[in-house]
């Protein structure tokens, strides 16, 4: 759970709402990438559409929109597999996608 723009009370409330299935934080994640993509993403944030950009600090991967996985999958099977996982999860980032990402990117 992120804390962007919120305080501790906001974090506690969001955790309670998530726990009771009243909100689904995964709908906010639109991009994933590695630490190598963080600086450029931050500098260009106003020009990158979508919601939250999730950075994995121990992998190397360009910041990539979930919606781009299918097209990137035409030349890299890892993206095709991520596309299939995310598509099976209503187009949302999920634990299965994260597990796949962490086991297939360095």
TrEMBL record:
KW Oxidoreductase (keyword) present: yes
Protein name (Swiss-Prot/TrEMBL): Mannitol-1-phosphate 5-dehydrogenase
GO molecular function: mannitol-1-phosphate 5-dehydrogenase activity
EC code: 1.1.1.17
Gene source species: bioreactor metagenome
EC top class named in words: oxidoreductase
Keywords: Oxidoreductase
